[in-house]
Write a structure and sequence with these properties.
By secondary structure, this protein is mainly alpha-helical. Helices cover 68% and strands 0% of the residues. The protein is built from 3 helices and no strands. It has helices at 2-14, 18-98, 126-131. The chain is elongated, with a radius of gyration of 51 Å. It starts with a helix and ends in a 16-residue tail after the last helix. The mean pLDDT is 83.
Amino acid sequence: MALLQNVRTKAKHRGMTPWQLVQKIRVLDTALDEATCKLIALATENDELKAERSRLEADFDQAAIDLSTALDDLRVAREEASDLRGQLAPYKAADANANRITVPPMVRDTCGPEEEATAPIDVRPLWAAAAAGLLGPVLDPGHTTTR
């Protein structure tokens, strides 16, 4: 009995009985299984996210290629439109000359209120304006004075 008592004493001195150690091992095994499951779940989620990222990168690359193609097509279309405008210009000018609106000399349509003169226009020959004192010395050629 001394041996059995000796083992029990040593086990008690370490703080845990063999049964408590078995229970603790069982708890640690359960925690290990849960951590392993969580690790596998995280690895699976990581793989799914990597696959989604690869798909999005491929979509982005395809969109960049499509944009580049569209920009090239737009540039070509603008150049072609510019060339066609240049070719059309002489025809438009000829059409405008052929179908121009002409007003006979000395005839002006003043039916609209925006076309009516706000005051009588003083039209005199230059010598008559000088005799009337309307002309003075020119001090600043960029500035004219009216009376």
